[in-house]
Design brief:
53% strand; single chain; mainly beta; 4-stranded antiparallel beta sheet
């Protein structure tokens, strides 16, 4: 991730967080305040705060200081996004006996939202998170949208929405890469994208 200040931040699989300032690399780990050595997601909010999702939780970095934020003992998985309201969202790894969940930084506290009541699939990890038009979209074993803090599963009976690996914003819709193919969800309609 390249921040507005020009630093390049790189999450590693086992060595923590790396920062490149154009000349040198600096490595940050638990010793400096990063919540884990396996970095899965990076994003920057509208105030320039860098958010880091790790196997040990969520860390923010501002003015040269790292701060850890509890996610109830759940590590982060791959996705993070900043909503239009500057709230930060993280997809959480599902542990045995737990349901799908997301962590949500409101600007003053970290909340963990259980998606079990929203999901017909249940028990999914949230692998990808994006922001589009003020809404936050979540994907894993299902596609969800959070509008004003209320979660809704989108087309819960569609097999195409099982095992989603990645989503990305596209105009007024969401591009979906799943085990079943590539799709565009736009204006409440789903269209398969054929190979180029």
């Amino acid at each position: 991730h390249c921040t507005d200040t020009g630093n390049l931040w790189i999450g590693t699989h086992s060595r923590g967080l790396a920062a490149f300032d154009g000349d040198d690399f600096q490595i940050y780990t638990e010793r400096e305040g990063v919540s884990g050595r396996r970095v899965f997601s990076l994003c920057e909010d509208h105030d320039g705060v860098l958010w880091v999702g790790t196997d040990g939780g969520v860390t923010s970095y501002t003015d040269g200081v790292f701060a850890s934020h509890s996610t109830g003992g759940r590590g982060c998985l791959w996705g993070s996004a900043v909503g239009g309201d500057n709230h930060v969202w993280f997809g959480l790894d599902r542990q045995p006996g737990q349901s799908a969940a997301v962590a949500h930084w409101t600007g003053s506290e970290m909340l963990v939202h259980d998606l079990s009541e929203t999901s017909s699939v249940g028990g999914a990890s949230i692998a990808s998170v994006v922001s589009l038009g003020g809404d936050v979209w979540l994907a894993g074993d299902g596609l969800y949208v959070a509008r004003r803090g209320v979660f809704q599963q989108v087309m819960p009976d569609r097999v195409e929405f099982q095992h989603i690996k990645v989503i990305a914003p596209h105009s007024d819709g969401i591009l979906i890469g799943s085990a079943h193919g590539t799709y565009l969800y736009e204006k409440n309609e789903l269209r398969r994208i054929e190979a180029l």
